[in-house]
Design a protein that fits this description.
With 376 residues, the protein is an alpha/beta fold. The protein has one domain: Glycosidases (TIM Barrel). The chain has 10 helices and 19 strands. It has helices at residues 32-45, 64-68, 109-126, 141-154, 169-176, 196-204, 222-225, 230-243, 279-291, 341-347, and strands at residues 3-5, 14-20, 51-54, 58-60, 85-88, 91-94, 98-100, 130-133, 159-162, 182-184, 210-213, 246-248, 301-305, 311-317, 324-330, 337-338, 352-356, 364-365, 370-375. A hairpin with an 8-residue loop joins strand 1 and strand 2 (14-20). The chain is globular and about 70 Å long.
Length: 376
């Protein structure tokens, strides 16, 4: 989020939905909104699109909205504002800098929903191309249908991405049915063997495309998790890029940054000396993804036996079954592992048309290595 925050300073503790966070503007460069318009125009001039977080399940606990519209908030039996929170190791942690919005049962629900629509329309009119909707499963489905439908009548190309991490497949499917373009999947935590990840994809793929990521602002930096193992970081990005329709990376991933992003404390001064520069590598992976349809479509992924338990073989086909790709991953981060090329090519019925990044005849993957085979 880029709006003015409450006293805690957390980017997700929004006090004023129309005011730009002073930390994000140059006080000598004109009105904040004009600076924002300039940023959007510059992004568009580079051939890119720009999204903004949409946080509507809570506000800052010191937001002026509480005084103006107390009935929009959830309150306990004593009339006190309810703070959201989460369980951490079995103990409830209350986020006292936040105040929970009652989108479902507010006595003034019509005005509340119109308020959220006005926020969406405001940022769409500024030029934003879409919204990443925070904790989408905590917002009533009816509100999403209303917002997405009304917004698209005025801005037909507007996109909505649902943050669905931590919810059940049924909750994810319920959110998907409200009109979202994308959800986020949990493949970041997959160990390449447990069935849950492929099971979830099998349930959601027919309904909505998803986005993978190797790290996010809610996780440790992958370079830190993997103790600076560059090839292992690269391996995980290859997997993330090819697993689902979409892929996301936070700024600094390409340079192997190791300091975790913090929604309260991170500042430009926290920019790190690069551990490496993987911009060209990421560009090549993205180009490969764009060039082969099976990696851009949301479709189930099948786990096959490579003949070596250390080598994962993941088969993905286009939705119409006309093209297929096989991703081999060496789970061993420290030792090379062999495989039988004929055996893995049989998974593709012998119709291998290309191999990357190693020659087709390769029969050993280096530590943290990977091989991509595509079929006609």
């Amino acid at each position: 989020p880029l709006q003015r925050t409450g006293i805690s300073g957390s980017l997700y503790s929004i006090a004023d939905y129309y005011a730009v966070n002073p930390l994000l503007v140059d006080s000598s460069s004109g009105p904040p909104e004009e600076q924002l318009r300039g940023l959007i125009q510059q992004v568009h001039s580079l051939g890119m699109e720009l999204m903004i977080d949409l946080v509507i399940n809570h506000t800052a606990a010191d937001s002026p909205l509480i005084g103006q519209h107390l009935s929009w908030y959830r309150r306990d039996a004593d009339g006190q504002i309810v703070h959201p929170g989460a369980y951490d190791d079995g103990r409830w942690t209350s986020w006292n800098d936040l105040a929970t919005i009652d989108n479902a049962a507010s006595v003034d629900r019509e005005s509340l929903w119109q308020h959220w629509l006005a926020v969406v329309q405001h940022y769409a009119a500024l030029g934003f191309d879409g919204f990443r909707c925070d904790a989408a499963y905590q917002v009533p489905a009816g509100l999403w249908r209303f917002l997405i439908g009304a917004a698209r009548r005025e801005f037909p190309r507007l996109q909505f991405f649902a943050e669905t991490l931590g919810c059940t497949p049924d909750q994810t499917l319920a959110v998907a049915a409200t009109g979202f373009d994308y959800i986020f999947n949990s493949s970041k935590w997959w160990d390449f063997s447990a069935p849950w990840c492929l099971d979830q994809l099998r349930q959601t793929a027919p309904v909505i495309p998803s986005i993978s990521f190797a790290e996010s602002h809610d996780t440790e930096r992958l370079a830190e998790e993997l103790n600076g193992h560059r090839e292992a970081v690269r391996q995980r990005y290859v997997f993330s890029a090819l697993f689902s329709s979409g892929v996301m990376l936070p700024i600094g991933f390409e340079y192997g940054f190791r300091r975790r992003l913090d929604v309260v404390k991170t500042r430009p001064a926290d920019w790190e000396a690069p551990s490496w520069d993987d911009t060209d590598f990421i560009r090549s992976v993205n180009a490969l993804k764009a060039s082969q349809r099976m990696w851009n479509e949301e479709a189930p992924v099948e786990l096959h036996d490579s003949g070596n338990p250390a080598i994962v073989a993941l088969l993905k086909m286009t939705r119409d079954g006309s093209r297929a790709g096989l991703l081999l991953i060496n789970k061993d981060l420290h030792r090379p592992q062999p495989f039988d090329p004929a055996r893995v090519e049989n998974i593709l019925h012998g119709n291998v048309s290309s191999a990357w990044p190693h020659p087709r005849e390769t029969n050993t993957l280096p530590p943290a290595g990977y091989q991509l085979l595509t079929a006609l």
